[in-house]
Amino acid sequence: PEVISVQDLASRMSERSVDVIKALMKLGIMATANQTIDADTAELVVDELGHKARRVAASDVEIGLGGEEEDAPEDLVPRAPVVAVMGHVDHGKTSLLDALRKSDVVSGEAGGITQHIGAYQVKLASGEMITFLDTPGHEAFTAMRMRGAQVTDIVILVVAADDSVMPQTIEAIKHAKAAEVPIIVAINKCDKPAADPSKVRQELLQHEIFVEDMGGDVLDVEVSAKTGAGLDKLQEAILLQAELLELKANPNRSAHGTVVEAKLETGRGMVGTVLVNRGTLHVGDFFVMGPAMGKVRALLDYRGQNVEEAGPSVPVEVLGIQGTPTAGDDFVVTETESQAKEIASYRQRLDKDKKVTATARGTIEQMFSAI
Ligand code: GDP
Ligand code: MG
Questions:
Q1: Residue 366: exposure state from Cβ atoms within 10 A (0-12, 13-18, ≥19)
Q2: Which atom of ligand 1 sits closest to the CA of residue 87?
């Protein structure tokens, strides 16, 4: 994708547009000052002109901002799986999320008070952790995917045993498959007399979900969100799937993450929930959050308690945001405040430019007048 205009790139390097155009010509690319070029080309130009380019996101070139260095294998440690619950309306997504939440031993100790922050964690009696996205439904999932964010490691497909496969079940399967996220089938409402789990397994075949009983390798578990039956097996299935995925991250670097929720709250200002993908986020860190920026004033966990830091797969509420982020935006900690400001204002400018419809496409004449 085209990410930066020649003019922008030039100004970010404090070079003249004409020199950038000349560098592009050397690469065999004819461009005008108003034209946009892709990240790979921009990187070559930056290099050509003796500057250093570093990317903050696959779709974005920022100059002088660190973050995309690969982690050495020995720095990677296991992280908790991030799980999203999807399925047809009334099949029990919300009930299941509520029931799973109750098995969190940490909340149990603290008196069971949980906040709605868009994601929560469950610490099992075994000490293992699972992170659940608390926004059931396909919208949140697709909205994030559309912004290039992939936070979900595992999808739990909830299918009511008394209703079987329905239109939104099929839609959820399509979304999960498109995102290449493994599915675990939770056959819910098994407490009901009309429950027919084998019918569910049978019908899933038509949508290329082959559960173990049917000779496939998709994990399936019979549960009841109402009675709690099978929830332990569901958690085991999640941990087993997570093990197969070998989910790892380096906690010892500056934090990167994704915004899962952002809202303006009276008395608190703009509050964003971030799911850290790698690194560790600390109070006092400067950051960019999509087109917004700030300094972490406070971090709160899903129980609403102040914490000093948050590592990989940990959802936290971030206070101290200036601007308006959106779910799916990236979150990157910067070294300095001025870096965060520069990137945020650059992104705001880019957003504004995009809104000006069909910004003057470069013409040959413009190109020559630029030189
Ligand atoms: P959602 O639309 O997928 O979020 O579904 P809900 O969680 O709101 O559940 C829809 C209805 O099914 C509610 O009336 C729940 O009480 C009921 N329900 C959910 N899970 C179960 C279950 O395991 N057994 C029974 N009997 N009812 C359930
Ligand atoms: Mg619901």
A1: middle
A2: 3
Distance 169 CA to ligand 1 centre (A): 15
- Taking alpha carbons only, the member of 150, 144, 157 closest to residue 86 is 157
Residues labelled as active-site residues: 138
- Which of 95, 190, 192, when mutated, tests ligand 1's pocket best, judged by the most ligand atoms within 8 Å of its CB? 95
| pLDDT 10s digits, 12-51 | 777 788 889 998 988 888 888 888 888 878 888 888 888 7
Between the alpha carbon of residue 21 and those of residues 3, 31, 170, 358, the distances in Å are 16, 6, 50, 21
What's the rounded mean pLDDT across residues 6-12? 84
Complex-level ipTM: 0.99
CA–CA gap between residue 251 and residue 231 (Å, rounded): 30
Contact between 231 and 99 under an 8 Å Cβ cutoff? The reply is: yes
Give binding residues for GTP as ranges: 87-94, 134-138, 188-191
Distance CA 22, CA 371 (A): 8
Q: Which atom of ligand 1 is nearest to the CA of 158?
A: 3
SS3 content of the chain, % helix, strand, coil (to 5): 30, 30, 40
Q: Give the integer Cα–Cα distance in Å for 86 and 93.
A: 7
Q: Residue 42 is encoded by which pair of tokens? A: 């921009």
Residue 67 Rama label (left phi>0; alpha psi -120 to 50; beta): left
Residue 225 near ligand 1, beta carbon < 6 Å: yes
Q: Which string of DSSP letters, residue by residue, matches 212-255?
A: GGGTS-BEEEE--TTT-TTHHHHHHHHHHHHHHHT-EE--SSB-
